[in-house]
Design goal:
The protein is α+β, with helices and mostly antiparallel strands. The chain has a domain of 255 residues: Methylamine Dehydrogenase, Chain H (7 Propeller), CATH 2.130.10.10. 19% of the residues lie in helices and 24% in strands. A hairpin with a 4-residue loop joins strand 24 and strand 25. The chain starts with a helix and ends with a strand. It is found in: Nucleus, Nucleolus; Nucleus, Nucleoplasm. InterPro entries: BOP1/Erb1, BOP1_N_dom, WD40/YVTN_repeat-like_dom_sf, WD40_repeat_CS, WD40_repeat_dom_sf, WD40_rpt.
């Protein structure tokens, strides 16, 4: 940039003529460096004292005009260089005339210009616009913060920053010692400290105070009026008047005719004089006196103060005076809960009564009562509360359903965790923490057989296929398949033949569970197969056809749910990843669906397509139980936060109805296979039976009506009913509790 700038100066100098010096042997003394912030040449004003002649000043003024960075040099220098002639104004204010330029051209040959150019023409440059040595141009100085220089001069040499080794203490001492410290500024172009002159300081102060920079400028000088206010005799111009000034206008005639026509037609109304007197009108003049919201009917009188009683007397009866205990209780109560807002006191005479201390407070409260009193009565809807209750059928119209306790099955020594009824409804299996599985006869409450399994029975499930007599029992990390040999002997014998007909494959496949045959001693008890998993089993459930068995393991990962096939003795894990801790699983009664209930959600999987079909959100903290309607379109689930949630799979993934009838956590829920009944058992020791009618019409929502609360179990270790199940053919419900009993409600 510096090179281009110097080249521009040389181009201008090569064209511009030069003036001969009056004394060639006399070299002008270099002027001191002008302040960079000074915008007006103070030494070159009126009367220069630099000691050089006019001719010398003209020479240097030509150099200054050709190479200066001022606005005049940039704007006018190019024009003068192109024209080859013009007037140049030097520092002394002298101008070159045409004759002097002509003499300079004839007296000075072209060859002498080279000798002048070879000299240091910038040594005598007196530009006061800015320091011409730093030719960095329009470049941000922040770019030079990491460099030791701040720019370049015209010769391309670096302009180094001044060394600043002063710390804060030295700067403070300099500030105290230097009297010109307050007028010293730093030049951003060179980084040097400059001392402002008195004229520059005065200029800065004028600009800060909002005045003009030039002291000779008068902003309040009188304005010169070009036209006086006096009436002149002669016109300003002697132009003759136009013809249209004394001939009627046709345009105005057309406008007037239009206005006359509008007035005749009534489109334009004449302005009537306004009456200056204010008009008042009744705000409620148009009000219907027979309206319900009439003003006279909505009047609310100010509330009246209650009349003083005996307690406010200065000599109240003794029974109105408070004792020490009553006084302490009165002081501890909240002001809003106190029956009296003051303490009754007794004085011997009226003269001894002091001024009432709460007088101002009560007056203020009275003002608030008057100010905040509602001035309009709210229209209350006269609705019978009975109409707000949904119209539900009477429970006696929804019979049959269990109403009372019929039998109690006693025999377990510890809490009974699980129940299951045979497909025919004749036998009942129950598992307990005492390590035994008991088989009962439903009609007589007689214990037919007791099987010791050697551990806590977590779950028990009777095979729903009536042609197979088999019971699945979850004990610790194994699932035991028992043949109780109850009922028809042909069915029991056919079950053993079905299990013995299995032929193991030559190359056993890798499975997540091991199938083990029972020993002879175990076969005498009724055990036929043992499925070992390696993890504790929490639930076992059968498919509707009786060939598949689903198991829930108390472990982490994708192997929480396993499906076993009885006929082929195969086990498989249907999931690749886990979606939380699985609580319950259930097969769909008619379609190839598997419902998996985790802590916060219920997922519906299609087993053939191996994909997720729906995800139900029960909005519960912890799901504890799950049951599927026999038709397969509705699902209920219980939770530990005392909620029973009903889902309609055809309606939405959100709950259709949430029932909160229990006071404690729900442990089990169940549907009746034939009747429109469902029940729930809770830790509060009760079983609530509800009527749940599902209609074939898809436009009609299910009807849910609680019909009976059954109680009989006693709470043990804060546990009540642990499991419930319905009889397959009768409207009976079985419940097992923490008190070690099984109860039948019919």
């Amino acid at each position: 940039m510096a090179g281009s700038r110097s080249a521009g100066r040389a181009a201008v100098l090569s064209v511009r003529p030069w003036k001969r010096r009056s004394e060639p042997e006399l070299e002008p003394e270099p002027e001191p460096e002008p302040p960079l912030l000074c915008t007006s040449p103070l030494s070159h004003g009126a009367g220069s004292d630099s000691g050089v002649s006019d001719s010398e000043e003209s020479i240097f003024s030509g150099l200054e005009d050709s190479g200066s960075d001022s606005s005049e040099g940039d704007d006018e220098g190019d024009e003068k260089g192109k024209d080859g002639a013009g007037s140049d104004e030097g520092p002394g204010g002298t101008e070159k005339t045409t004759e002097e330029q002509a003499q300079a051209d004839t007296a000075y040959p072209r060859t002498e210009m080279a000798s002048v150019l070879t000299a240091d023409e910038y040594a005598e440059d007196s530009s006061d616009e800015e320091d011409i040595r730093n030719t960095v141009g329009n470049v941000p100085l922040e770019w030079y913060e990491d460099f030791p220089h701040v720019g370049y001069d015209l010769d391309g040499r670096c302009i180094y920053k001044p060394l600043r080794t002063q710390d804060e203490l030295d700067q403070f001492l300099d500030k105290m010692d230097n009297p010109d410290y307050w007028r010293t500024v730093q030049d951003p172009m060179t980084g040097r400290d400059l001392r402002l002159t008195d004229e520059q300081v005065a200029l800065v102060r004028r600009l800060q105070s909002g005045q003009f920079g030039d002291t000779g400028f008068d902003p309040y000088e009188p304005a010169v009026d070009f036209f006086s206010g006096d009436v002149m005799i002669h016109p300003v111009t002697n132009r003759p008047a136009d013809k249209r000034s004394f001939i009627p206008s046709l345009v105005e005639k057309e406008k007037v005719s239009r206005m006359v026509h509008a007035i005749k037609m009534g489109w334009i109304q004449p302005r009537r004089p306004q009456d200056p007197t204010p008009s008042f009108y009744d705000l409620w003049a148009q009000e219907d006196p027979n309206a319900v919201l009439g003003r006279h009917k909505m009047h609310v009188p100010a509330p009246k103060l209650a009349l003083p009683g005996h307690a406010e007397s200065y000599n109240p009866p003794p029974e109105y005076l408070l004792g020490e205990e009553e006084r302490a209780a009165w002081e501890q109560q909240e002001p809003s809960e106190r029956r009296l807002s003051f303490l009754p006191r007794k004085f011997p005479s009226l003269r001894a009564v002091p001024a009432y201390g709460r007088f101002i407070q009560e007056r203020f409260e009275r003002c608030l009562d008057l100010y905040l009193c509602p001035r309009q009565r709210k229209m209350r809807v006269n609705v019978d509360p009975e109409d707000l209750i949904p119209k539900l059928p009477r429970p006696r119209d929804l019979q049959p359903f269990p109403t009372c306790q019929a039998l109690v099955y006693r025999g377990h020594s510890d809490l009974v965790r699980c129940l299951s009824v045979s497909p025919g409804g004749q036998w009942l299996a129950s598992g307990s923490d005492d390590g035994s599985l008991r088989l009962w006869e439903v009609a007589t409450a007689r214990c037919v057989r007791t099987v010791s399994v050697g551990g806590v029975v977590r779950s028990v499930a009777w095979n729903p296929n009536p042609t197979v007599c088999l019971v699945a029992v979850a004990v610790e990390d194994s699932v035991l398949l028992l043949n109780p040999a109850l009922g028809d002997r042909l069915v029991a014998g056919g079950t053993d033949q079905l299990l013995s007909a299995f032929v193991p494959p030559e190359e056993p496949a890798l499975q997540p569970a091991r199938w083990l045959e029972a020993s002879e001693e175990e076969r005498q008890v009724g055990l036929r197969l043992r499925v070992c998993h390696g993890k504790p089993v929490t639930q076992v459930t059968w498919h509707g056809r009786g060939d598949y068995l689903a198991v829930v393991l108390a472990t982490q990962g994708h192997t929480q749910v396993l499906i076993h096939q009885l006929s082929r003795r195969r086990s498989q894990s249907p999931f690749r990843r886990s979606h939380g801790q699985v609580q319950r699983v259930a097969f769909h009664p008619s379609r190839p669906f598997l419902l998996v209930a985790s802590q916060r959600s219920i997922r519906l999987y299609h087993l053939l397509r191996q994909e997720l079909t729906k995800k139900l959100m029960p909005n519960c903290k912890w799901v504890s139980s799950l049951a599927v309607h026999p038709a397969g379109d509705n699902v209920i689930c219980g939770s530990y936060d005392s909620k029973l949630v009903w889902f309609d799979l055809d309606l939405s993934t959100k709950p259709y109805r949430v029932l909160r009838h229990h006071k404690k956590a729900l442990r089990a829920v169940a549907f009746h296979p034939r009747y429109p009944l469902f029940a729930s058992g809770s830790d509060d020791g009760s079983v609530i039976v509800c009527h749940g009618m599902v209609y074939n019409d898809l436009l009609q929502n299910p009807l849910l009506v609680p019909v009976k609360v059954l109680k009989g179990h006693t709470l043990t270790r804060d546990l009540g009913v642990l499991d419930i199940t319905f009889h397959p053919t009768q409207p009976w419900v079985f419940s097992s509790g923490a008190d070690g009993t099984v109860r039948l409600f019919s």
